[in-house]
Each structure stands twice: as structure tokens, then as C-alpha cells.
Amino acid sequence: MPVKKAIFDKKNILVIGGAGFVGSNLCDELVKTAKVICLDNFLTGDQSNIAHLLANPDFKFINHDIINPIELESRPELAEFKVAFQGVQEIYFLASPTSPKAYMAHPVETLLVNSVGLRYALDLAVKYEASILFASAPAVYGAGTGPMPIKEDYVGPVDQFGPRACYAEAKRFGEALVNNYRLAHKLNTKIARIFNCYGPRLSLTDGRMIPEMISAAYSGTTITIYGRESEFASYFYITDLIRGLMKLMESGESGPVNMASEWKMSINEIAKKIITLTNSKSIIEFKNRPAHFEVQPLANISLVKEKLGWFPIILMDEGLQKTIDYLSAQKGIRRPETTLGSVKMV
User: Fold this and answer.
1) What is the pTM of this model?
2) N or C end of the chain: smaller count of CB under 10 Å?
3) What angle do CA 119, 259, 305 make, to 5 degrees?
4) Which residues pair with 189 in a beta bridge?
5) If you average pLDDT over residues 308-318, what whole number do you get?
6) For residue 63, how many other CB atoms are within 10 A of its CB?
């Protein structure tokens, strides 16, 4: 059995996928009280997301693809973290493409990172007796079936040959792998099923609804939404998610738990809010959804409210304004030739 390592001044926390949207925002919070080791290979993450952290002595970045094993003790950049003596106390596994555009462009990588890569992360957790959190997704519930809002105990069908199977099956297998490592090795594991989240550091070009709406609104082009005007969705702001992930890590709960907003809003209303906040002249157009588009289900979050006392607190208007301020500062958003004129419901 591995020996529990002594903690010096601060915990060592490993964030795999730490240069992505969620990972980089998580690193911002963790580094306030811990020493953070950020692993990323920039498949979908971005160096600009963590550039402001590189000068922080409590933050270390390693360019590494987790589908290959890694020996942390031998890394010279981690000498100050004394990993050989202290080990790692917490691991957040966020290393996967998450937008449909990204995982459909990288299907094999998506499958491998949630299986082979997750296995190496779990082996590190066994080695250091670390707590590990796996970021899963509502894709595990299947396509368009089951009760709404959906609860964690629902088990639905997934077509393993469908256009989005690389992601849904990867997350299902990932959850099974995490659970069986928990049982076999007595690991402290957590599974968070993350629903629609938005905020700063979302890519303008990864095909998600809110960034594309903002881009279209700024360029004055038509906001085209694939779906019906009467359809509803729920979105929550990134700081609420980060708070939830950290609460789950600190808790005795293993999950899975839904992390989502219980405030549903029509897609039309969201588009109108963005048009108002950007002072845009854009119009909204609805088109029939192609067969391969899937609508994310609404989530029941009663379990996470009961177990963790967590629920989103940032209102939509406030979150959208912060996201607009961030995205509008990015180079090129106001140039029509670099904006996107259509929006897909994902």
C-alpha cells in the first residue's frame, strides 16, 4: 500500500486539461490556496488561457498528452513542489474535447483520452492516494429520451455508431472506469456531469451557442438557430461551475451529480438578450434541426443541492454581460469576416 505523503505549506493539485475553458478558470481559483500542476497538449485548450498564471510560483505548466504516461517526480519544473516527498493530493480530469465541433473533429482522441488517458490519471491517484474528479457530461443519458428534468439515476440508450458516439460512449466508459477504480482501489473518486456552461475563455470558433450568438450580434449578421422557437435550454456561468467542482472535491460524495442551472429560458429569449446587450441590429432566424443535431436535456439538480448545498447564483443577464465584455475584447470579434453567422443548439 502507498504511504500517505506529508503536506508541506500547500496541497499539490493536478489539473489535467488545465488550459481549456473549464480547466483554466479552475486553475485561477485553485492557485489562490494550493500549488497547481497544469497538464495540457493544446488540442482544444489555448496557451492564452493560462499565460497570466505562468509567472506565479505556485503554478507549473507541463505540455503533455495524458494518453501517454507521465512521471511527475522526474520533471525538473516540479522540483519546488517536492512531489517525491509530498505527492499529489487532488486530481481534476478535464482532458477531453467537449464541444460537438471539437470532438467530431477529433473522435479517436476523444475516445482515447477518456479511456487510456483517464486510466493513467487514475493510476496516479492510486499511487499518491489522491482524490480524483472526472468531468463527465449529459451525453451519458442518451439522445432525446427519458423524463425531464433528467435525474442521475436515468439510464438511456446511446447509438455507438451515431455521429456523436465518440463523446457519449467515451464519457460512459469513463464513468465506469472511475467507479471500478473506486471499488477496486478504495479511491476517493467524484463524477460531475457538467451541463451547458458559458463564460470567459469560451472559444469563438468551437460551435457553441452563446459565443456564436455574440459573434453574429457584433457583426450584425443573422442569428440562425437550428430548432423551434418554443424550445428551452438552461445555461449557467463558469464561476458557479468552478465553485461546484471544488465543493464536490472537498465533499465525501462520489456522485455522479448533475451540475446545471434549473432556470430554463427559451432560445429566442437568450438571443434577444444578447442582441440588446450588444446593441445589435441582428435578426433571429429559426431553421429545422438537421438529423444529427441533439438537444441537451434539462437537468434535475435536487441531488447536488441536497448533498453539497450547491446551485447556480449568477443570473443570466450578469453572466452574459461578463461573457460579452470578454469576447468583445478578443482580437477580431468586430471584424465581419471572422465572425460566425449561424448558431447550433448543442
Assistant:
1) 0.91
2) N
3) 120
4) 132
5) 96
6) 11
**Amino acid letter, 284:** I
Burial of residue 192, with CB atoms counted within 10 A of its CB: 0-12 exposed, 13-18 middle, 19 or more buried: buried
Contacts of 2 (CB under 8 A, 6+ apart): 126, 127, 128, 129
Which residues, in sequence order, are CB contacts of 337 under 8 Å at separation 6+? none
* 20-38 tens-digit pLDDT: 999 999 999 999 999 999 9
**For residues 299 and 138, is the Cβ–Cβ distance under 8 A?**
yes
- 178 has a pLDDT exceeding 70: yes
Domain borders along the chain are 12-197+237-259, 199-236+263-295+314-344
Q: What are phi and psi of 130, to 5 degrees?
A: -90, 150
Q: In this predicted model, what pLDDT tens digit does every residue of 53-74 receive, in sequence order?
A: 999 999 999 999 999 999 999 9
Q: How are beta strands 265-266 and 232-233 bridged, if at all? A: antiparallel
Give the helix/strand (H/E) hosting 154: none
- Count CB neighbours of 124 within 10 A: 22
What cell does 261 get?
A: 442551472
Contact criterion met (CB below 8 Å) for 129 and 88: no
Integer-rounded Cα radius of gyration of the chain: 20
Task: Please give the pLDDT value at position 3.
Answer: 44
Find out if CATH 3.40.50.720 is the number for domain 12-197+237-259. yes
Does the pLDDT of residue 294 top 80, yes or no?
Answer: no
Whether the Cβ atoms of residue 316 and residue 273 lie closer than 8 Å to each other:
yes
Q: Topology of domain 199-236+263-295+314-344, per CATH?
A: UDP-galactose 4-epimerase; domain 1 (3.90.25)
Catalytic residue among 92, 141, 167, 181: 167
The 10s digit of each residue's pLDDT in 73-115 is: 999 999 999 999 999 999 999 999 988 888 989 999 999 999 9
167 is catalytic: yes
pLDDT digits (tens, 9 = 90+) for 108-164: 999 999 999 999 999 999 999 999 999 999 999 987 656 789 999 998 888 899 888
